[in-house]
Each structure stands twice: as C-alpha cells, then as structure tokens.
Amino acid sequence: MEFLLWLQASQLSHVIAKANHMLVASLQIVHVFGLILLLGPLLLINLRVLGLVLREQPLEDIVGQSLKLASLGLALSVTSGAFMFVSAPLHYYANWAFDTKMALLLAALVVYALIFAWRPAQVRAHIALARIHILMSLTLWIMVCMAGRAIGFV
Amino acid sequence: MDSLMTIAETLEQSAVGLAIAEGRYAFPLIEGIHLIGLSVAVGLIFLIDLRLLGVFLPAVPVRALHRQLQPYVFGGFGIIIVAGVLLFLSEASTVIASPPWPFKAFFFLVATVNALYFEFVIARRPAAFPEGVPLPKTVRYAAFASLSLWVLVIVCGRLIPYIPHWT
Q: pLDDT 10s digit of each residue in chain A, 154 long?
C-alpha cells in the first residue's frame, strides 16, 4: 500500500495520468491491439491442434510462427497495461476484478509459457494432451480479458 | 440531428436497452463478449492479411487459409454485431453524441465493402493467388487496406468513451 501511494505520487504516474487524458486512451488502444494480436494467433494454433483447419500443413510451422506473433501481442498488452497501472495504482488497488485478472493472468502466463516446451514428436504422440493444453490456454486468456473488462465497473 | 437523438432516446427506453443499462454486470459482460468476438474475427482477418502481404505463414497456400478460416471469421462477426447492437441500445444517445462514433461507422462501412469486394471479385479470379511468386498487387493492396481500416475502426471504437462531445 505504501508502495502504491509512493507510485501514485511519483513523477511518471503524474506524467501519464494528469498531463494527457489522450495518453491513457492511447495505452488502452495499444492494450486492445495487443490482445487481438495474442488471441488471433492463439486461436489459429487451437484450430490447427484440434484438427479443424490446415490439417495438411506442418503443425510446427503454424505453431512456431503463430507463437511469435502472439508473444508480440502479449508484450504490447503487458507493457501498456503496466503503464496504465502506474498511472493510477490506487484505482486498481482493492478492485476485485483487477485482483481476479492478475491471478488469472499469472495462470495464463504459466500455461502459455509451457506451449514453448512442445516438441513435435511429443505433440503427435500425445495429441489429446496438447489439445487440452491449448484449449486451457485460450480459455484462460478469455477469462483474463473478461475480468479486465470488469475493472472499470466494480 | 435532433431526430437522430430522439430515435436514440427511444432505443434506450426499449426493454432490452433498459435491462442492459440497469443490470449490474450486463454491460461489462456484453462489452467483454464484444471484445472476444473482435479478437476472433479481426484477429483472424489480420492473420489472413499478413499472409497476403507475405509476412506470415508464407509456405501455407492462401486459398486453404482463406477458405478454412472463413467460418470462424463470420462467427466472430456474428458475435461482435449482436453484442455491439446490444451495447448501442443501452447507451445510444451517449454513443451518437461522441465524435469518434461516426468515424467508426464510416470506417466499418468501408472495411466491409473492401472485404466484400475481396471475397466476391478479387478472390474469385483464377490467378488471384499464384504459388511461389509474390501475390498480385491488387491482392496486396486489398490486404493492406483491410489491415488499416480495421485498425481505424478499433481505434475510433475505443476512443468513444474518451471523447464524449464535439465541443
């Protein structure tokens, strides 16, 4: 709490929050594009691993390239989100939607990081496990998104 | 403009509009669904556009990607439109007073026309997606237009609560 008070009073916080209303709007916009760039490729990985699209294309190619794009989106969202938090830490403190979102985010990050440990041979041998894994990842990110949307309303 | 406002106020007074505006969690819940639908439809459109521009999955045939992702793109759009209409009903007069809204509507229209032109004219040409060589210029222009227009739609949409009035 003391840290948050210090953060709220900090120069950076004031620069973001007070100096420009449109800066916060811009961060929100980057946050949304990060999400789209994360969820789009992740959905493509889901569809491919579930065998719904591009079955004749090599799985590792689609997973590898999609993960790169998804990680770029994740980086955009996390960075813009961090700046949004710094601009008004007390607004996010004691907000149950924010706490829920952070808990879900932590779980989503762990499950997402584990996708990078996939090896093509293992995925082929344990396709059911890979399907559960990738569906779980998508579901967690959707939950992060829904909890995030609630922050401004509770 | 006044008659538009009257229509907007009537919409807000509709049973559905009132229910969403008054429910505690209805509005953020529908907003969340609007956002998920957006990530599905526009997220996948971005992937197709990036493929057409040659920067994503260059080894995957365009026809396969385009055809097979299509039902999910349409599904996502169905979700966006239903959720979007519900959100609009609940705060129509606030939304139409916001300067970014007419821009969003305009870019949405142009993006839709561009998508339909791509689907029904460009993509139906037999030589639209040759393999092993760069795609025709019209195809790449359409992809670039699609990317830019959807970006503009989303930017304007997200600005609605931040720029509520003209003056």
A: 778 888 777 777 777 666 578 888 999 999 999 999 999 999 999 999 999 999 999 999 999 999 999 999 999 999 999 999 988 888 888 899 999 999 999 999 999 999 999 998 888 899 999 999 999 999 999 999 999 999 988 8
Residues near B5 by beta carbon (within 8 Å), at least 6 away in sequence: B93, B96, B97
Q: How far is A5 from chain B (nearest CA, A)?
A: 26
- Which residues, in sequence order, are CB contacts of A20 under 8 Å at separation 6+? none
Neighbours of B104 (CB within 10 A): 20
Chain B residues within an 8 Å CB radius of A36: 38-39, 42-43, 46, 154
Nearest to A36 among B46, B50, B163 (CB): B46
- Closest of B95, B84, B109, B86 to residue B163, by C-alpha: B95
- Predicted-complex ipTM score: 0.93
